[in-house]
Structure formats: C-alpha cells, structure tokens
C-alpha cells in the first residue's frame, strides 16, 4: 500500500466496472481521486464508499473537461494521474449495416473523449508544483489488435486509442515534459458492458460460457486485475515506461487457432 501516496488522480468511467475497481485501488494506494462519470447516482456511491470526489463528466464535451480541470486545480493544485477509462460498445454494427449515429457516438466517446482527456491532463500536469510530471493511462482493448466483425465502430475506435497513446507519449517525451502515456488492453473482463451489447431479454448464460472460454486460462478477467495494471503505470515504479501496451487478457491473443486434438 501507499504506492500512490500524495498523488491526485482522475478516473473516467469511474462509476462502474474497471473504473470503479481502479478508484478503489487508487484510494487504497493513497491517491486523492476524482470519480468522473455521467452516471451521477452510481458515481456518487463509489465516491462515498471510497472517500473520493465525484465530478460529472461527459468525456466527449470539451466544456466538461475544462470545468473538471479547473475543479482539480482549485482543490489540489496539481494532477498526477489520468485514467482515461470511459468507453462504450456499439452492438451489432457491421460494414454493410452501419448506423452512423452509433458510429459517431463511439468516435466521440471512445476516441475524442480520450483525446480531450490527454489534452487537458497534459496542460494540468505541465503546471504541477515542483515541475512538469504525470502519468496518463488509456483503456484500449485486445480489439486494438484483432477486430470484431459485428462491431466495426468499437474495433476502429479502440485501434485508434492504441496509436493515439503512442503519439501523446512520444510528444511528451520529446518535449521533455516528464509525462508518460501508456495503454492497457483488457480482454474479456467480467463487467456489465457485455449485457449492454446484446438485446434486452437475451439469455446471457451461453454468452458468458463463451466469454469464459475465450482465454487459455479458462475464465474472464476481474476488474481488479485491470486496476492492478493501472496502479503500475500510475506509480513511480514505471518512470521509464511510456508508449507501452499492457495486455490483460488471460493469454487470449497469444494463442493461434489450432486443429482439434484427441
């Protein structure tokens, strides 16, 4: 414990799933944390439970980011960590049946939202007392490497986050900002995002069975396992790690399809 003592962090999508798990872990490690989410009731509960601060944030809104940055600076005078975690799936959207409204929504949240977070975090971190420094962590996906045929929007946006992260990392390094930027690539993690991706009333039992069978380890990941990866990137244990990708998927993308064996 204490790996993030004295640090101030923002966790977007902090009201549920991997975001809520990361808020709890960051707080346990000693950080002051802003739970940034559009889900006010859930976000407020997480903040109350952990001693964090809730801030309503639509990640696709530049005005909301400006307001949050001002709130963080006024209260603590610094920002050390941004976990750009908020994201949504598109559901059944294929290249022949793409819904442009869904496409544009995912671009605005999964891609523009990450960009805006990086932009405002860098501005705050460069003004930190004692000198420019900080860690930005972007939630990408295993879908950054291998695409979903049924969700072209999610596939495209998560691939974009992978390279956006590298662009931010390289610029920050070359500008001598002492700000790092890395991405986490979860595989199937046991959160509510899967139930949101299927029609209401769908029998989830066979879907959950298939999800548990995706990785060689034979189970879905836990939100806390992603939070542990975020702690490493956020901590002072990773000063030479930037532009990196940490895959948290139980070996899913490490295995090639094989022929049946007796």
From TrEMBL:
The keyword Lipid metabolism applies. It comes from the Bacteria. One of its GO terms (biological process) is steroid metabolic process. GO terms for molecular function: oxidoreductase activity. SUPFAM superfamilies: NAD(P)-binding Rossmann-fold domains. Keywords: Lipid metabolism, NAD, Oxidoreductase, Steroid metabolism. Belongs to the short-chain dehydrogenases/reductases (SDR) family. This is Short-chain dehydrogenase. It comes from Trinickia symbiotica.
């Amino acid at each position: 414990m204490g790996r993030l003592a004295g640090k101030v962090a923002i966790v977007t999508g902090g009201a549920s799933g991997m975001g809520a798990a990361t808020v709890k872990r960051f707080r346990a490690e000693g950080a002051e944390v802003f739970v940034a989410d559009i889900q006010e009731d859930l976000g407020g509960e997480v903040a109350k439970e952990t001693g964090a601060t809730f801030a309503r944030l639509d990640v696709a809104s530049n005005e909301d980011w400006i307001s949050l940055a001002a709130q963080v600076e006024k209260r603590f005078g610094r920002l050390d960590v941004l976990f750009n975690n908020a994201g949504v799936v598109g559901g059944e959207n294929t290249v022949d049946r793409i819904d442009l409204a869904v496409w544009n929504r995912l671009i605005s949240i999964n891609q523009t939202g990450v960009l805006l977070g990086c932009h405002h975090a860098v501005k705050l971190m460069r003004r930190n007392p004692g000198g420019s420094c900080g860690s930005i962590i972007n939630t990408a996906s295993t879908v950054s490497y291998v695409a979903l045929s049924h969700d072209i929007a999610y596939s495209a946006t998560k691939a974009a986050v992978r390279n956006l992260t590298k662009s931010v990392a390289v610029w920050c390094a070359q500008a001598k900002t002492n700000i790092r930027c890395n991405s986490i690539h979860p595989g199937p993690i046991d959160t509510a995002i899967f139930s949101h991706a299927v029609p209401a009333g769908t029998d989830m039992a066979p879907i959950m069975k298939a999800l548990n069978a995706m990785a060689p380890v034979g189970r879905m990941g836990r939100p806390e396992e992603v939070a542990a990866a975020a702690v490493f990137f956020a901590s002072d244990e990773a000063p030479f790690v930037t532009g990196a990708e940490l895959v948290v998927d139980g070996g899913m993308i490490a295995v090639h399809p094989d022929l049946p064996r007796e």
